[in-house]
Design a protein that fits this description.
The structure is a single chain. The termini are close together. This protein has a single domain (about 45-290), classed as Alpha-Beta Plaits. With about 350 residues, the protein is of the alpha+beta class. The protein is globular, with a radius of gyration of 25 Å. The protein is about 40% helix and about 10% strand. It has helices spanning about 5-20, 25-30, 40-60, 80-90, 100-105, 150-155, 180-185, 210, 220-225, 235-245, 290-330; strands at about 70-75, 125-130, 135-140, 160, 170, 190, 200-205, 230-235, 265-270. Keywords: 4Fe-4S, Iron, Iron-sulfur, Metal-binding, Repeat. This is 4Fe-4S ferredoxin iron-sulfur binding domain-containing protein.
Length: about 350
C-alpha cells in the first residue's frame, strides 16, 4: 500500500502527539494556597524594564563604575515579609494588605509552614528555618542575578541580558518557552506561567532595574526596617559583609554566599549557620555558562544529526503498524481496499 498525503499528515500528527510534554496543572506546579492569581502580571514588570534597557542602550548612556549588589544579613531578618509586599506593589503583581504579610509570622497555621519558591505572581519569598536549638531564621529568596548568568547562556533566543548595573533582565517578546533557563539556573528561580494555557512565559525578579537606573534602591531594600538588606556597589557590599563577619566573632559563619559561587552573584548573604542548613545549594565557583554552553552545543548537534532520523524513524514505525493492522482487517474481510 502506498503512503498518501493524508496518511502522512495523520502519522505526523500522531507522532507530534507522542512528543508533546504534558503541562503540569497549577495544583501540581504550586503548593496549595500559594498559587498565583490567574491575573498575575509579572511580565508587565519584566516588559517594562526591558524597554527601559533598550531605550538606555539607544542613547548610549555610560554604564556605572561597577555593578550593584544587595547584602542579605540573615541574622537581622525578622520575617515581617514587608519585602514581599513592596515587591508585589512596585511590580503590580497580585497583592494583599501589608498587615496580612506582617501578621503571618505569628499565625498558626502560617505561610512559613512550608518552603516556598518565587513564582509567576511573586518575585520574592521569605522562608523560615530553625537552628539546632530551635531559633527561627528567616531567609529571603529571589533571583540571585548572577555575574555570569546560566539563564542567559542557556537561552537559544537571547531573551536574557546581564545589565552593566547588575540585574539580569528578561525579554518576553522573543521567548519561545523552551525553559532551558529553568534547567540552567542553580537556584531554581525562573518561574513558568503554568496557569496560562495560551502564551505561557517566564517571569522573575528584575532587581528593580527601573529603580536602580533612576538612582533608587530596590523596593524590597527600601522598605526593610530591620536592616537586613543593604544596597551598594558590589565590591563595597562584599567589604561590608566581611567586616561584619570579622567584627562579630561567633555570630556568623566565615562565608559570604554569592561572592564566589558559580562565578559570583549580585545578591550576597551572611548567616549565623552553615548555608546548607537553610536551603542554599552547595555550588562550585565555576560559572554555569561553562557547563551550559557545552550542553547547548550538544543540543544543536542533536538537532542537526539526531533529531530528524528519530522523527522519521518513529513515523516509519507508526506507518508500519498501521499497514499491518489494515492487512489483518483485509484478511477478515473488513478492509476497504481491493483484495
Amino acid at each position: 500500500m502506498k503512503l498518501n498525503r493524508r496518511e502522512f499528515l495523520k502519522g505526523l500528527g500522531a507522532l507530534a502527539g507522542t512528543l508533546i510534554i504534558t503541562k503540569p496543572s497549577i495544583s501540581q506546579a504550586y503548593s496549595k494556597g500559594d498559587a498565583p492569581s490567574i491575573y498575575a502580571t509579572g511580565n508587565k514588570a519584566n516588559e517594562k524594564v526591558w524597554k527601559i534597557y533598550e531605550e538606555r542602550k539607544k542613547k548610549h548612556l555610560p554604564p556605572p563604575e561597577e555593578p550593584y549588589a544587595v547584602l542579605v544579613d540573615i541574622s537581622k531578618c525578622i520575617g515581617c515579609r514587608r519585602c514581599e509586599w513592596a515587591c508585589n506593589e512596585w511590580n503590580q503583581n497580585p497583592n494583599r494588605p501589608l498587615k496580612e504579610f506582617e501578621a503571618s509570622v505569628h499565625q498558626k497555621p502560617s505561610v512559613f509552614d512550608k518552603i516556598r519558591r518565587p513564582h509567576a505572581g511573586n518575585f520574592t519569598v521569605v522562608n523560615r528555618f530553625y537552628t539546632k536549638d530551635g531559633t527561627p531564621l528567616y531567609v529571603k529568596r529571589q533571583c540571585m542575578h548572577c555575574v555570569h548568568p546560566g539563564c542567559y547562556s542557556a537561552c537559544l533566543v537571547e531573551a536574557y541580558r546581564k545589565t552593566p548595573e547588575g540585574p539580569v533582565i528578561y525579554n518576553k517578546s522573543v521567548c519561545v518557552g523552551c525553559r532551558y533557563c529553568m534547567v540552567a539556573c542553580p537556584f531554581d528561580i525562573p518561574a513558568y506561567e503554568y496557569y496560562d494555557p495560551i502564551t505561557p512565559q517566564i517571569t522573575k525578579c528584575t532587581m528593580c532595574y527601573d529603580r536602580i537606573v533612576e538612582g533608587k534602591v530596590p523596593a524590597c531594600v527600601e522598605i526593610c526596617t530591620a536592616g537586613a538588606l543593604t544596597f551598594g556597589k558590589r565590591s563595597e557590599i562584599i567589604k561590608i559583609a566581611w567586616e561584619r563577619i570579622h567584627n562579630n566573632p561567633g555570630k556568623y559563619v566565615p562565608h559570604v554566599y554569592g561572592e564566589k559561587e558559580v562565578g559570583g552573584t549580585s545578591w550576597l548573604y551572611i548567616s549565623p549557620v552553615p548555608f546548607e542548613e537553610i536551603g542554599f545549594p552547595k555550588l562550585e565557583e565555576t560559572p554555569i555558562p561553562e557547563y551550559s554552553e557545552r550542553f547547548l552545543f550538544m543540543v544543536k548537534l542533536f538537532e542537526v544529526v539526531g533529531a530528524w532520523p528519530l522523527v522519521f524513524g518513529a513515523y516509519y514505525q507508526i506507518s508500519k503498524s498501521r499497514k499491518k493492522k489494515q492487512s489483518i482487517n483485509e484478511e477478515k474481510g473488513e478492509g476497504h481496499g481491493k483484495k
